[in-house]
Amino acid sequence: MSRAAKTTGSRSMTTRSRGTTAKPRSTTKSKPKKKATKARPTRRSSTPSEQPESGDDNSNEDEEEESKVRVPSKRKSISNITQSLINKRQKQMTLPESDLEYFRSAARRFSATYSPYIDWYQVIYAGLEHVDDLVESGHAYLPQDETSLDTLIELYQELAAVVPDMASLLEQVVDDGAIDGLITSMNLAASAAISQDIRELKSSILTYAREHLEIKHFDPPIKEDGSKADTRGWHHPQIGRLLCTPIKLPQFLKDPQKFCTLVRDGVVRINHTQFPSCFYQDGGAAASQGKDFVLEHLLRSQLLAKVTSANFLLVILFLADGTGQVFVNIYFGKSTADNFVDGEHDSRFRVKRSGKAYRYNIQEITYRHIAYTSLLLRHSLSASDDWRTDDGAVVKCAAFDAVIALFEKPKYNDEEFTAQLLKEWNEMFGWMLPSGEDATGLDSDDDEDSSLNMIQALVQHKRKATANTSRTLTNDTPPSHGDSANPDNSANA
């Protein structure tokens, strides 16, 4: 999988086991590292009740020293991030390009491109301790095992690749005692972004589901703006058909209503380790024939592609081979999707350069994009109103991890299957993704409103007109005397 650049600029990075003494950075600091466990509010002047009692000859010196520390004029001004956090609490507006927004934007990005379940508390503290050496080592909330710690450090590096001058900004926030406030703000931003994706799918998923099931109407009817608790998930037999794992489809098809009741009552258990039939291009028909067919058409469904595309690039896909509705909805966006029909490159079709793909300059489809899409699809069809709430036996976080495991855990990884799957997804959507020059380059052939495109057309027109005039003048010029005497010219005449 291609990830964001993993370097943190000129900062030297050392990965150490938990609890070891932090190694100083290349730039020597005269002050000691901060303790991460202490929140430090803005200092205030001392009050009489806080003054130390006179117990020895040095008490006055101690008082003078403490007073110096607490004089407001001696304290440096708080960072822009801390001020923004204060403004948030006071419900004041903050600048969109503020330092705080860099972190919030990164949290939104990684929720859809890496994982919706990132623990930013652990990521930030792992980096502060083991990469930038800004806090004391041995933080109580970091994982003990080296593998988990390395994963946190790797994600911290990727965060540093998209947040300008991150180490310097974090040092200021640690000085202000506002690091926990920053992490909370990042978590809220990520959660809000995921919730927005969910809201956009709540009604459109029913349209996609009808197309996938090849039906015109649900029976019984489902109101698009109605409550999910009573009309989706295992409360509706046709939605249940999409959620049923393929190996149980024969039992389901005998009596859908009864099967749904058994699932709701916990007699039949459908959990997060059982991929639903809506993940399959053929609705799980091939996989229902036996355990040896479990990979047949897996993660190639029309629903998955359509949901991804509407959120990713603002596109809703209707592919002739039945692949990919949800994916288009997430990463390309709905309006672009509406104009893309049957997988054909219509001459009038244009990918609108909005959605996550162009916002985050995503140039390749990865398995994490597919996993995020699968989570949203599964939740949108479920009876659960909150994506953070488990749906019966389906644990949402574990459902995401189950798809990731196909690619990352050796015991589940069929290399031929995963390589072919990613190849197909990138062939399907790769031409719609931004190229390396789209984010920073000047060329934009499909942007009719581009000033540069207009100027280019004028320049080309003028050059063509000049060339035509030059050729006309050349043809109208009479031959010279020397040319008339030329035997070749005479012969041609």
TrEMBL record:
Region (Disordered): 1-93, 462-493
Bias type Polar residues, positions: 78-93, 466-478
Stretches of the chain forming a coiled coil according to its record: none
Bias (Low complexity) ranges: 7-25
InterPro entries membership: DUF6698
Annotated TM spans: none
Ranges of compositional bias, category Basic residues: 26-43
Composition bias, Acidic residues: 53-66
Name of this protein: Uncharacterized protein
